[in-house]
Amino acid sequence: MTATLTVTDAGERVDALIAAKMPELSRSFVQRLLEEGRVTCRGRAVKKSFRPETGDELTLEIPKPERLEVAAEEIPLDIAYEDADVIVVNKPKGMVVHPAPGHADGTLVNALMAHCGSELSGINGVLRPGIVHRIDKDTSGLIIAAKNDAAHRLLAAQLKDHTLSRTYEAVVIGNLREDSGTVDAPIGRHPTDRKKQCVTDKNSRPAVTHWRVLERFNGFTHVECSLETGRTHQIRVHMAHIGHPILGDAVYGPKKPYPGTDGQCLHARTLRFIHPSTGEQVTVTSELPEYFIELLNKLSRS
After folding, report:
1. Pick the CATH number of 167-268+292-301 from 3.90.190.20, 3.40.50.10860, 3.30.2350.10, 2.20.28.10
2. Active-site hit among 15, 56, 85, 136
3. What is the pLDDT of the chain when averaged over all its residues?
4. What pTM does this model have?
5. What is the spatial distance between Cα 288 and Cα 104, in angstroms, rounded to a whole number?
């Protein structure tokens, strides 16, 4: 199929522009289209660094979803909500969301394929069927997947206009002075470490995180974080940016692990979305996992 996009804001790289205007397509999927010469402007294929002008029309040739080559695996799922359009899973800490180099199996996608069969959206291609948004391997909690393309498009649109809201709980290092606050700071790729993100004005996208204190400990704080945007590693980057990295996050915080932690103490607690078929608001909440509760108990005794 083909899709067209008229440029209204000049100066932005074409890969970032398409990803922002068409949130149902992942950034990596857009970049693959560009690499394969499937994005044209003024009759010519363009590269990801191309910056179109106002009024330019981009044409995207979106191939039909390839036959899925990822194997279905009978992996137990903690299903928090499910119907004919969507499934919300409470992902355990340590599970990768979709196959990638070094993680060909044992992922959430492998498990979803076994549970849902062919009932997964094909919009994000062969490796991410149904996946509307992602959470990190070492982040636990709720993630939503779409069972058909129509539901996927509507949920992706909600991500863009913030009607799909996500609330997390985390333990951060240090004591926050205020009881609540907002971090409004753009996030982009780290200039020297391509695996990291950072707060930057260069090739970045707006990012807003709201936080409030739930409980204070000696040298640590239990907080709730609500996302207004959904950038890669957003909460981890923003909390580190204000001097309070998430406990256990060796990428954006201290390299030396806190005793008893294995990865960041971050849990996707609540999801709210408008149901793609009924139009009604759905709220799904998960309990704090055992590792999180054990850590809170340990901090309360220290």
Report:
1. 3.30.2350.10
2. 136
3. 90
4. 0.78
5. 28
